[in-house]
Amino acid sequence: MKRIYLILIILVGISVSCTKNFEDWQKNTKAASEVPGEMFFTNAQKVLADQISSTSVNLNNYKLFAQYWTETTYTDEANYDLINRSIPDNVFRVYYRDLLRDLKEAKSIITATEVPVDQVDAKNNKLQIIEILEVYSFATLVEIFGDVPYSKALDINATLQPAYDDAFTIYKDLAARLDVAVGAMKDGAGSYGTADIYYGGDEAAWKTFAYSLKLRMAVTIADADNILASGWAVAAAPHAFTSSAQNCQLVYEAAPLSNTNPLYQDLVASGRNDFVAANTVIDIMNGLADPRRAVYFDNHVLTDYLGGTYGESSTFGNYTHVGAILHTETYPSTLMSYTEVEFLKAEAAARGWNVGGSSTDHYNAAIASSFADWGVDGVAEYLAKPEVAWDGSGDWRQVIGLQAYIAYYERGYEAWTTIRRLDYPVMNTPPSPVTTDGKIPRRFTYPINEQTLNKANYYAASAAIGGDAMETKLFWDKN
User: I want to staple 70 with a disulfide (CB 3.0 to 4.6 A). Which of 50, 269, 278, 285 is the partner?
Assistant: First the structure.
């Protein structure tokens, strides 16, 4: 009997020891058990900058929709096919799961973290900066899709099937959140320091960015509610960017590859030759003899700048290439720029809003800023061209729309949105457009996953916006 007891004791001991060792073996001793909120914030910034810069046809087709580039071989995306590669699903995932979810986690952790009294204001600034970046991200989702999950989004404990909120209601709430965030920030208190890869923790720079963003939002809704929009613009314009030194951007690193600009990854490191300049932008700039062509494009062996016919297969060696500057590892990703702010002010002034200065002055300043940013000489001669010079009369949509389009060359999303708002310049019709009218998409269709996993709310949202089609104009797109 004693022998049996002894055997049982040994077996139990072995069992406990094995269980303990197995549990220890399962642990990743190199992984952090607690992640600071600042790291989630930094990662969200990187995700957003990458999404803006990327030219992956799985994630970002805006440079194609703006007809800056066209595809060399696979032409589905240049013909506005969003479904073949599940692009709406991918965009939804990046914004909600990879970006907004990280911002929410950063906010939760930073809020719960106790700090010394002398760091309370810096902690508050961190939370307000998260608010500003959330506003930017949700505003972009609204501009891409229309009605989207907002008030019930990001809380999986409450629901896995969030309702879609009215897009205009979201937009107005976002503007109010910007006001609160800016008003709550404490000057001189600091924030993230080097964990902020856009502004280095400069809270004053974030406030200026917030005002610039509100100006953009004001101009976006101008045709939907002129009175509301003008109020936002008049309040925000005096505090918006006044030089390119204030641009909100991420300057990438030369190494490792994951920290380089996605353009470098797509155009160089991939070893692929998927894009050439499109005839749409080339023909426009050739007609103006625009000196920015020399940096926008690489003419390689060609005598003249020659764009591939948009939407058709274009042999890489036969057409003008994307400029060398966009092939560099460290080329920045820009969320907003002074050039854009000046074009927004030019449009606001043309609408009769009192944002300070004339529409002509802001128009000229925007073009001059673009030339300076690209390091191109000859802006005075360019502004004097009869095709460029503007005295504020005539069709301001056409004048501003054309020059903003040229200036936004590497910023495909902003160009696409401006084209949708102003309907200038007129885009070419690709040979096999998926849109029924042959025109550029006015929005992204909702993700296929939403149709299957959030069916009731998907159908409600689709009906509310007038149908889940690329041709459906969003609430702010009245022209």
Answer: 278
